[in-house]
Amino acid sequence: APGSILVLLRTIALLLCLNPSLSLAKGPSYAANLSLAAIQTELSAYENISGLAARFSQKKHLKGMGIVLDSQGRFELRARNAAEKEVVWLVEKPSYLRLELKGSGIEAFDSLEGPPRVLVENTEMAAKALRPILAWISMDAVKIDAEFTVTAKGKTEFLLQPKAEGAGSVKEILLRLGKTKLVESLRIQEKSGDALDIRFSETKIERAP
Predict the structure, then answer these.
(1) Tens-digit pLDDT profile for residues 74-103
(2) Which of 35, 76, 90, 161 fits a 20 to 30 Å CA distance from 1?
(3) How far apart are CA 183 and CA 86, in angstroms?
(4) What is the pLDDT of residue 151?
(5) Order of strands across the sheet with 105-109?
(6) H-type helices in 112-186, by residue range?
């Protein structure tokens, strides 16, 4: 339905921090910020990957409307080289939506056929907007350290807060690791009070030779 597609597009805009007009709200502080070495240790399962795929289910909580929107699908990350990654984020339910994220911007497909709708142009601003989402989707410790301040909330929970003040609409991300040290879930908190919960399953990792 057109309405659900618009909501999904808004969700992606939230994840990509594409709302620069909002001011940064400070989140709660925790005892210790993690160093790059500590982040690399916690995310060692994602070291030297050449590919990553998983299924996801997500719930978007719209605070102002008091409703929750459910969607599910799968994503795939391909590492073209050490510095360049591409992501395909495919929403299968309730409506088809395929998003391709790459250095040149974001392309959206709302049907299996037909030309894409370009959501983000190939600009320096687009590249800057893509960096945070590519960092947490790929679980690249170096890129996460560059984009976020990471603090430990528990043995398997970590809080990611954007370093760039005023850069977008994301206030903070709560990341939870499962028993195998793979990411089990994310809670993305928006400055407006809206939130997005994402749970991952059937994660598959390909390693670089």
Answers:
(1) 999 987 665 677 889 999 999 888 888 876
(2) 76
(3) 19
(4) 94
(5) 117-120, 105-109, 97-102, 85-93, 67-79, 49-62, 195-207, 183-190, 170-177, 157-162, 148-152
(6) 124-138, 141-147
